[in-house]
Amino acid sequence: MTQAWSKLEQSAARLSAQHLRELIDTDQRFESLSFRHEGMLMDLSRQRIDAQVMNELLALADEKQLPSAIKALLQGEHVNNTEDRAALHSALRLPKSAQLRVDDQEVVSDVHKTLDRMEQFVNQIHQGQWRGYTGKPITDVVNIGVGGSDLGPLMVCEATHQFRPEASLNIDLHFVSSMDGSQLSNLLLELDSETTLFVLSSKSFGTIDTLANAATAVDWLQERSGLNRELLIKQHFIGVTAAPEKAVAWGLSEETLLEFWEWTGGRYSLWSAIGLPIAISIGMQGFRDLLAGAHSMDKHFEEAEFANNLPVLLALIGIWNINFQDIHAHAILPYDGRLAHLPAYLEQLEMESNGKSVGIDGSSIAQRTCPILWGEIGPNAQHAFYQLLHQGTERVMCDFIVPARRYVDRESSLQEQHQLALANCLAQARVLALGDAALTDGIERPPWQRYFGNQPSTVLMLDELTPYNLGSLIALYEHKVYVQAVIWGINPFDQWGVELGKKVANDLITALNQSANHQYDPATEGLLNEIQHLRGNGQ
To answer: Which of 178, 242, 332, 481 lies in the 20 to 30 Å Cα band around 447?
Structure first.
């Protein structure tokens, strides 16, 4: 137990009987607990902290040697110790003039070679020069991927749809990830095989569900065209992978491959060639704006004092809530429909990264680590789980995310709708913190209409939602995850908890395709026998 940790435990006891409404009702609280970086404001004034707690959290960061850990991450040291490699997604955002060597290789030039190659592909598609097997230009692009190869591009494309340039307006983008084939089979009913391009995204090029969807797409093209597999793949597939030799063995052409690197984690990969659908949607300039926004947050993370460093402060507030306030649920609540997929994206980013109970030295972790994340667009969530937030028995920390401006120079009805979203966002944060004190009507209410409040929340307000500001927001959460991992002493860049299930599933595929007896646990045997019976293969 470190000295800073012990002091924080004492502060938690000191503040345990104090309601948030008392903390909020102090002079200069908003001014002292709101922080800005470029087009983003982070308001921590509704967190159950005071100046002493903030100082103790900053001391904890120093005790955990966070400055050297940040340097190690950004300079390409092997911070992913269990896989003995760097975790250098920040290098994907570096400007062309930068220099960075990782494992004796200069990476920035390679990154920009890939970006230039992406731009060639994007221009060909936008200009109608990429054509299908009958010579017609591409009108539909289907991204086949799972996890980070799906969630990142899907989230960004939805969030930045209004920034599509004229050249991309005739291209419809679709995303397929489900392993049961239901998404793809329904989509193929609507598509024209002559004008559909598939982007096959897989870091390892060994993910069975992704390859199964790709095989279905190839079969569909062959059924519609009557042409051979090699020709169809060359004209209707782009591969994005860190295993090009496997992609070529599958049948992809080297001319239609985009590569990225093993040090790019799947959930951190939208900045790489995995982001091709984003570039197709908003153009290469829009994609570069996204990268620039993330790079700006990288520099802020590296250079800003911790007392004003947004990723560090957001992470420390999480540590305070999880480890000292006994809160283990985290709701992500965007008040903008364009950010509908952000909660799912952050669920993967945080829970796959920090959902660990073993430290970097192999020992068991004594304290809590990652909480359970979930979320929904605010207005929908208000009619779903806000009942629990306001009057349930669970303590929950919330992140409200909202742009201050939208629909500039648009009709007044749309402006009013955005005002409604803003009002609801601020109201919910206010009521969660203050409870009944947020009401000013003086009416005495029965117990079932009472609001206790005292639920902490952070408000992240963007000046407006642009590719640049979105890039900055995503990078903020990426670095938050890393800071928390450093303090907990875990590796946020591996995901061994994902791997075992895949291996067992591969074994069970054989069992499902055969009627012979198998030796599994009784529960699994029972289900296998029932499945075989229902298929007519069992007794």
So the answer is: 332
